[in-house]
Amino acid sequence: MTQKLHIVGGGMAGSEAAWQAAEMGVDVVIHEMRPKVGTFAHQTGNLAEMVCSNSFRSDDDEQNAVGLLHWEMRAANGLIMKTADAHRLPAGGALAVDRDPFAEAVTAKLRSHPRIEITGDEVTTLPDDGHWIFATGPLTSATLGEAIRAETGAESLAFFDAIAPIVYADSIDMSKAWMQSRYDKGETEEERTAYLNCPMDKDQYEAFIDALLAADKTEFHEGETAGYFDGCLPIEVMSERGRETLRHGPMKPVGLTNPHQPDVKPHAVVQLRRDNALGTLFNIVGFQTKMKYGAQTEVFRMIPGLENASFARLGGIHRNTFINSPTLLDVQMRLKSKPNIRFAGQITGVEGYVESAAMGLLAGRLAAAEILGLDLPEIPKDSAMGALIHHITGGAEAKTFQPMNVNFGLFRPVDGLKGGRRGRKDRYKAYTDRAKAEWTCWLEQS
Ligand SMILES: Cc1cc2nc3c(=O)[nH]c(=O)nc-3n(C[C@H](O)[C@H](O)[C@H](O)COP(=O)(O)OP(=O)(O)OC[C@H]3O[C@@H](n4cnc5c(N)ncnc54)[C@H](O)[C@@H]3O)c2cc1C
């Protein structure tokens, strides 16, 4: 066996990818630039360093999508999960991890693997040959970022995310909201009704602005703002610039008629746009925010129609390098313009330690199978792994693509189950049962 797999970045994704490929019998070289070249967030030279919180979030594999992802990674001999379990700290239903021993153990395990070599170099180009996985994360080094930008085009690589909150469609009160594009623009009925609109009268608008101004906000981390620009201002910063600013920006009411009250002109309108092909998720247009999570749910539930909204993810703005995966990657995470290169981890537009490691697990297996000449069956869409990879490589709206956590809104509905909050428990159990069966079957066939 002469063909090696090169993995750039030994974070959550790169470490898991290396482990999976090596366990399948492929020789791996990990190129990790730390500690020679640092980032503003990493503190050590260890692989798989957790840069901020020490939580892998919920460990509930029956009622929570991230817990299900834990389950699937454990079933697939995942190094990150196995090591996290070994260094677990008490945290109720969450999986909290003792970060330093965790990263030291991952590093030791990879260093001692007979098929894995670790080099300390920064990779600055996208090679034309060989098998490569780029898993350089949210803080990809600047020179490599430029090389990726040259390959993908400036509009396909972002250095900050600007995440607007995402709402489950079935939690929106359609007796108050309605579907309509501004001025009914569009060639087809689908385009003319592409937006979901929530109306506000003057009192509701004024109360909403007061709540935005008073809400608790998070700050950027030190060093995080370098290169931050004015193009994606948080909604609360826009409201600080004047009480009417939002009414002339993302909340302008023009070109819209409320069919529930056709004679009343709304004072302001909040618009939501479909976020996935399944139509199960809607993002609140222009509502990127740095409000704290608790404040966000309180403030956004003041919007008529969203009083009982369930959020698939809340908003945020972070330093985050990520590519437009829905347009750039094929279903095997290969760069369409250079198929000898795969991307994995947070740079593909997933977010979080767990999701990043999960995409590393898939990329490692897919790359190893290619090198070994094995045909892997398609990754099952109804598993958490499958829901996530299919979202980033095609299911997500490419034009508005922003990083995504795993959530049940990415899953195909199970027929015959009650929607809304009441049916949630049974629905989630049905999703996780189906996912486990499909993932187990895929592992057996792989
Ligand atoms: C400030 C900050 C706070 C965060 N807080 C959280 C949180 O609380 N919870 C959470 O779940 N997620 C958080 N994240 C996101 C989290 O860091 C990622 O989800 C996860 O680490 C991504 O895994 P990854 O493998 O894709 O990238 P990383 O884990 O970042 O690994 C990428 C690796 O690539 C290396 N690298 C970069 N460029 C090169 C190069 N050119 N050559 C060689 N090596 C290179 C880096 O040194 C790094 O080790 C945070 C991110 C940031 C930036």
From TrEMBL:
Query: A GO term (biological process) for this protein?
Result: tRNA wobble uridine modification
Molecular-function annotations in GO: flavin adenine dinucleotide binding; tRNA (uracil(54)-C5)-methyltransferase activity, 5,10-methylenetetrahydrofolate-dependent
> Domain MnmG N-terminal, which positions?
5-373
* EC category name: transferase
Give EC number(s), comma-separated.
2.1.1.74
Tell me if Zinc is a UniProt keyword of this record.
Answer: no
Residues at which FAD binds? G9, G10, G11, M12, A13, G14
Instruction: State the Gene3D superfamilies in the record.
Output: FAD/NAD(P)-binding domain
**GO terms for cellular component:** cytosol
Name the reaction it catalyses.
uridine(54) in tRNA + (6R)-5,10-methylene-5,6,7,8-tetrahydrofolate + NADH + H(+) = 5-methyluridine(54) in tRNA + (6S)-5,6,7,8-tetrahydrofolate + NAD(+); uridine(54) in tRNA + (6R)-5,10-methylene-5,6,7,8-tetrahydrofolate + NADPH + H(+) = 5-methyluridine(54) in tRNA + (6S)-5,6,7,8-tetrahydrofolate + NADP(+)
User: What are the protein's UniProt keywords?
Assistant: Cytoplasm, FAD, Flavoprotein, Methyltransferase, NAD, NADP, Transferase, tRNA processing
This protein's major location comes to cytoplasm
Taken from the record, one Pfam family name reads GIDA
Cofactors demanded by this protein: FAD
Indicate whether Iron-sulfur appears among the record's keywords.
no
Q: Where located? A: Cytoplasm
Instruction: Name the domain of life.
Output: Bacteria
HAMAP family referenced in this protein's UniProt entry, alphabetically: TrmFO
What protein family is recorded? Belongs to the MnmG family. TrmFO subfamily.
What the protein does comes down to: Catalyzes the folate-dependent formation of 5-methyl-uridine at position 54 (M-5-U54) in all tRNAs.
Name the chain's protein.
Answer: Methylenetetrahydrofolate--tRNA-(uracil-5-)-methyltransferase TrmFO
Q: Which organism is it from?
A: Ruegeria profundi
